[in-house]
Write a structure and sequence with these properties.
The complex is a heterodimer of chains A (128) and B (819). Chain A contains 1 helix and 12 strands. The radius of gyration of chain B is 30 Å and the shape is globular. Chain B has a 5-stranded parallel beta sheet. Classes of the chains: A mainly beta (128), B alpha/beta (819). At the A-B interface, helix 1, strand 2, strand 3, strand 6 and strand 7 of A face helix 3, helix 17 and helix 18 of B.
């Protein structure tokens, strides 16, 4: 299990230009409004966030690097000075969903992934 | 700590140097200043100054569990205990100190410990489980910290001090007497003037004898009688050391070898070991500047002023505390009733403050300390400093008169000028912002109130209005939002954001608004699940590993055998860990998120409902068995507890609320430690309010005595509703009362005499909330749509495969945090 966690932790953020696979995750309406849900892709857990007020979507690793918990998809989302963020439900560490940077502590960056919505379905971009 | 600070400071200046750290202990540097918090729940991880990943991220090679055993100064090589050799250009010895163990007969007996490392603490905790009575040898700062830890282990605690007073380096006899009085009220027995001569026992420890022929029977002895610098490596390498221990350094923290520095408690400067963290950090700064060749700053000794909270008692000692170094006249205020002692040493001409001592109330410490350090002139009647009205406004005004050079944060050496500059130039408006940009308050935290005052005064001078707003998304206080929601009939978070907020909301304002909506309308919270904290979103408590725990309501702690069996059956079926809670209920742990609705469904079929253990809401009303069974009971406490628990179940508030009902004066339900507590009397009921347990326990205060049951219930209605309407977010009733202007007298006026004329309104509002109650679990169980939200993956029915459990004492447990 630890290996799997470490794999995910070191999984690098995907650049939009290098996307090879757009993974069809689920229907748009399966994700709660202004909230998150977890998507399984291969052996990875991806947290997908629906900012319905802003009509924006974000995705990141589900693992919070602070205590290595699979938890970010259950966190509250919001913004700080416009920057979209998620707060881990365990200890409220917050991470930018644009660049993965931890915003209120010195934790490691999380990986973020591009998201697109087409024909009512949510797709997450991966390089492999 | 000092070694870590050196790394941090070096990396702040430059990344050009290869930096390698060797440490004897099995883990990276941790916070020894707050070591006693390890006994009250902090984990090793909480105490770490930085995780291993920080060292990696900053390109620092870290070898833990590896002791450097020799230095070859000619070839500039060190050798570790496993034979590893490493070359250095500069070597910094931050070897710290070890506990001083006096040479007393029997000191090697089982049950004698020192108080220094996490390993020491683990041994103390283990041993402490088997015994009842402990003595701490040493009544200094560290000894009293250790005594606090022993109280946390719930042991009968004694403190043995050789000198005639506690903290002999910091405070005088009168101050010690006041401090000792306060500590003995908390259950610590103080013995001064006691020289220990022998530690007795046969195999294990039994007692200790003193030179005055008395003795004290104890089961464990914790020695905290001072420190000895770790200079053995320096000595064996031929570096100059002090006859009383410690590596001798010059004002640039250099030893007599120009390539070797020594910093922190291992070092001796000018015949003195500096056993506090702030001077150690300053030495680290001096060493970094020497090595990197940045502007030199000599270490010229350090002000040993200190302020701390010892077991909840303020202690401050600053400048020249005893007035011995100069000709001074002391001004002394002793208040034995409230346990307050203040001493100011004034220069003979009455112009300057040179030092002093504060016990019981150190709210003026920062101001006084700054007056000493900056040689600020005293007011013409210096006694006004002691007798003048106390309170925040005065302290806030106090920071105005400080010069810009005044050092506010001594751990990180941040001046008032720097803070003001950050606020004015970079428009920082929060203490958190200042923490980030200057690092102030991040060491011991003692300067936080002063930084807060400087922020407030500076913002006010810039024309900002200073208000306790929720966050950047709502420019209102909680109380203002309450009124807005009510008056404009706002029912959703998005609705409120549209009308009165900006941006997207965040993890601070969402749960506050969610709680307000629930407190005002009491509509099911599941309809707006994503503004709830995760516990409220999933109607269960998230636990380590990401599973949830389930607590059904067991009102008053009364349960039938059939229902007990039903809980057991459900726990067995879903393989849940079970534990009795502190509130007379049963907690079922380890439920996966997708199992929750099915578990609730079965519990509901057996006649249970949600216990709201996950919410900032009414939790339990604890009861003793009362007059129905107990031979002492004078009223039926169980019946009344069940009645009020059912009355307020599901009631959401700024923080969790707990109640208790005792059937007689013996108070077995511990009602006086609850937010509201009722104790039966011969004539009726006594109602207590605003108590709590937790990290800072506070006894509840008597609101009324000998009232009948209906009056009692009416007053609890008014009390809870008034709290819900006026408290700040996440403020428990005790803190709410502590902050309330007018305090208990005012609260009595409002609730009993209805001085605001809102009594009837409070009761009506409570009645509406009670009428709107619905079991949230049932709501989910009955709705296929809501049930569908309870799964780990949105695109798969699989469970989270990363959940791992281990068996402990015949039940399952989650595995530890982080591998």
């Amino acid at each position: 299990m630890t290996e799997q966690l470490n794999d995910l932790k070191t999984h690098t953020s995907e650049e939009v230009d290098n996307i090879k696979i757009w993974f069809k995750a689920a229907r748009e309406d399966q994700f709660p409004e202004n909230g998150g849900a977890c998507v399984k892709y291969k052996n990875l857990q991806i947290a997908v966030f629906n900012f319905s007020n802003r009509k924006e979507w974000y995705a990141s690793q589900n693992l919070c690097p602070h205590k290595m918990q699979m938890s970010l998809s259950r966190g509250m989302i919001g913004s700080v000075e416009g920057e979209p963020k998620v707060a881990c439900p365990f200890h409220k560490k917050t991470f930018s969903l644009r660049n993965g940077q931890c915003l209120n502590a010195e934790e490691e960056k999380i990986s973020v992934f591009p998201v697109k919505v087409e024909d009512g379905f949510v797709y997450i971009g991966f390089t492999q | 700590m000092v070694g870590y600070k050196f790394c941090e400071k070096l990396r702040n200046v430059s990344t050009d140097y290869q930096l390698i750290v060797y440490g004897e202990e099995p883990r990276p540097a941790y916070d020894r200043v707050h070591l006693s918090s390890y006994f009250s729940g902090s984990s090793v991880d909480d105490l770490l100054l930085a995780p291993s990943s920080w060292y990696k991220g900053n390109d620092i090679e870290l070898f833990t569990g590896e002791l450097v055993v020799s230095i070859d100064r000619t070839s500039r090589t060190i050798t570790t205990h496993i034979g590893r050799k490493d070359h250095y250009d500069y070597l910094v010895l931050a070897t710290g100190s070890s506990a001083f163990v006096p040479n007393i007969e029997g000191v090697d007996r089982n049950g004698v410990f020192v108080y220094r490392t996490i390993e020491d603490l683990n041994q103390i905790i283990q041993y402490g489980k088997t015994i009842k009575k402990v003595a701490v040898m040493g009544g200094g700062l560290l000894g009293l910290e250790a005594a606090k830890a022993m109280l946390d282990l719930e042991l009968e605690t004694h403190v043995i001090e050789f000198a005639s007073r506690l903290m002999p380096r910091q405070i005088d006899e009168d101050a010690s007497a006041i401090l000792a009085g306060k500590l003995s009220k908390l259950g610590i027995t103080i013995h001064t003037n006691k020289a220990t001569t022998k530690i007795n026992g046969n195999g294990k420890l039994e007692s200790i004898s003193f030179s005055d022929s008395t003795s004290l029977p104890i089961d464990m002895l914790v020695i905290s009688a001072g420190i000895r610098p770790r200079d053995e490596l320096a000595k064996s390498s031929g570096l100059a050391t002090h006859p009383r221990g410690g590596i001798i350094i010059d004002e640039h923290t250099r030893t007599n070898d120009e390539h070797i520095f020594a910093i922190g408690e291992a070092a001796v400067y000018n015949n003195m070991v500096y056993g506090l963290v702030a001077p150690g950090y300053e030495m680290a700064e001096v060493a970094v500047r020497q090595i990197t060749g940045t502007a030199a700053r000599p270490f010229l000794g350090y002000d040993m002023s200190t302020k701390l909270k010892l077991i909840g008692v303020d202690v401050g000692s600053f400048g020249d505390p005893f007035g011995e170094l100069n000709n001074t006249v002391p001004l002394v205020w002793i208040d034995k009733r409230n346990g307050i002692y203040k001493r100011l040493n004034i220069s003979e001409d009455g112009k300057y403050l040179l030092g002093g001592i504060l016990i019981g109330d150190a709210s003026q410490y920062n101001l006084f300390h700054q007056m000493v350090v900056n040689k600020m002139p005293l007011p013409s009647e210096p006694e006004s400093l002691l007798l003048g009205t106390k309170g925040k406004s005065e302290e806030g005004a106090g920071v105005k008169s400080l010069p810009d050079t005044a050092q506010i944060c001594s751990c990180e050496n941040v001046t008032k000028g720097q803070l003001v500059c950050e606020i004015v130039e970079k428009q920082i408006t929060t203490v958190d912002g200042l923490k980030k940009s200057t690092k102030a308050c991040t060491g011991c935290g003692g300067c936080t109130p002063m930084v807060n005052d400087i922020l407030k005064v500076t913002l006010e001078s810039l024309g900002h209005k200073v208000k306790k707003t929720i966050c950047e998304h709502f420019d209102f206080t909680r109380q203002e939002l309450y009124d807005l929601i009510k008056v404009k009939s706002v029912k959703t978070f998005d609705g409120l954001l549209d009308l009165h907020g900006q941006g997207d909301g965040c993890e601070v304002c969402k749960p506050v608004v969610a709680s307000l909506l629930a407190s005002i309308w009491n509509e099911p919270i599941v309809t707006q699940s994503t503004i709830q904290d995760t516990n409220d979103r999933f109607l269960a408590n998230i636990q380590r590993g990401g599973t949830y725990s389930v607590v059904p309501r067991i009102a008053g702690g009364e349960i039938t055998p059939e229902k007990l069996i039903a809980i057991g059956r459900v726990a067995e079926k879903y393989k849940l860990y079970t534990k009795i809670t502190g509130g007379q209920r049963i907690d079922l742990f380890g439920a996966k998120v997708e199992q929750l609705p099915a578990i609730w469904e079965e519990l509901i079929e057996e006649g249970f409902e949600s216990g709201h253990a996950y919410g900032k809401a009414l939790r339990t009303v604890k009861s003793c068995v009362g007059s129905s069974w107990c031979r002492f009971g004078v009223q039926d406490s169980v019946a009344y507890a069940i009645f009020i628990e059912n009355r307020y179940k599901g009631l959401r508030a700024p923080h969790k609320i707990k109640g208790g009902v005792s059937g007689c004066i013996r108070e077995c339900a511990e009602a006086q430690s609850k937010d509201f507590g009722v104790i039966a009397t011969e004539k009726g009921w006594n109602l207590y309010v605003c108590g709590n347990g937790g990290s800072r326990p506070q006894h509840a205060k008597l609101l009324v005595n000998d009232v009948d049951i209906d009056t009692c219930t009416k007053l609890i209605d008014r009390f809870l509703m008034f709290y819900i309407k006026t408290a700040d977010p996440l403020t428990r009733t005790a803190t709410w009362l502590n902050k309330m202007e007018g305090g208990l007298d005012y609260l009595k006026e409002v609730l009993i005499n209805d001085s605001l004329g809102i009594g009837q309104q409070l009761e009506t509002e409570m009645q509406e909330l009670i009428a709107n109650y619905e079991c949230e679990w049932k709501k989910v169980v009955e709705s296929p749509e809501l049930r569908a939200q309870f799964k780990h993956f949105v695109n798969s029915e699989e469970a989270d495969s990363t959940l791992v459990f281990a068996e402990v004492r015949g039940q399952k447990n989650p595995t530890n945090w982080k591998a």
